[in-house]
Amino acid sequence: MQVSRFRSSQMLLAVLLAFAVLLLGPSVGHAAESAEEAGLRIAREARESQRGFGNFTAGLEMILRNKRGQESRRELRIKVLEQADEGDRTLIVFDRPRDVRGTGFLIHSFKRKADGQWLYLPSLKRVKRISSSSQSGSFMGSEFSYEDMGTAEVEKFSHRYLRTERCGAGECSVSERVPANKDSGYSRQLVWLDEEHRIFKVEFYDRRNAHLKTMVAEGYKQYLGRFWRASKLTMTNHLTGKSTDLLWSDYEFGTDLDAGDFTSAALRRVR
User: Fold this and answer.
1) Which of 16, 58, 76, 132 has a beta carbon 3.0–4.6 Å from 183's, enabling a disulfide?
2) DSSP codes of every residue in 95-132
């Protein structure tokens, strides 16, 4: 009888511990960790897990969808160069359709200030700088803003861990990040990260704290045995009913890229 009671007590204790782990999530093993410290740690771990890729190129298809489900498509190319002490440098070139062919978009991401962004318009044959106050605008008519196209550097936000919950076939940590940039189009973002530190979902809230957009990432593949990349990003605007898909393909790492390929002068030469 005593053995049976002992085993029952053990089982009850195990259940209680498991329940505590579910509630506390990332704070288990970090007893003195605040929600803010946990959120920052999770964001840093996600960044570190994907550091060291060097550079890559990829193909992109952009599908613009209105609230009636009608679609238009664009074909793009992207080049990304990792920087040791700052954010990545990114170059996007539009190939199709004809009316946007040759348009180029250059991003210099930074950790503690607004990104430098430049748009080359072949019809005008000039490079236009996108000001910080304009980066909340729509990127080429899509549901992604100019702000969304840059690297979400850890230092650009304050972070707060909220909870752990089921997502897909696994579990995600859910954290809130608040942009430090006063010109941001968002008051806050909620980020779901899975066990591999991959983004599962991001909810974007506008300056009035209304749920403006949701981005969902799907079809992850691992490259070089380490780097996870999604094959599809879908941004849905809940106020307009419009959405945009970004379909990624033909990833190639370790290409012949350097900083000279990511200047406003080089942007004029994109083809």
Assistant:
1) 132
2) EESGGGTT-EEEEE--SSSPPEEEEEETTTTEEEEE-G
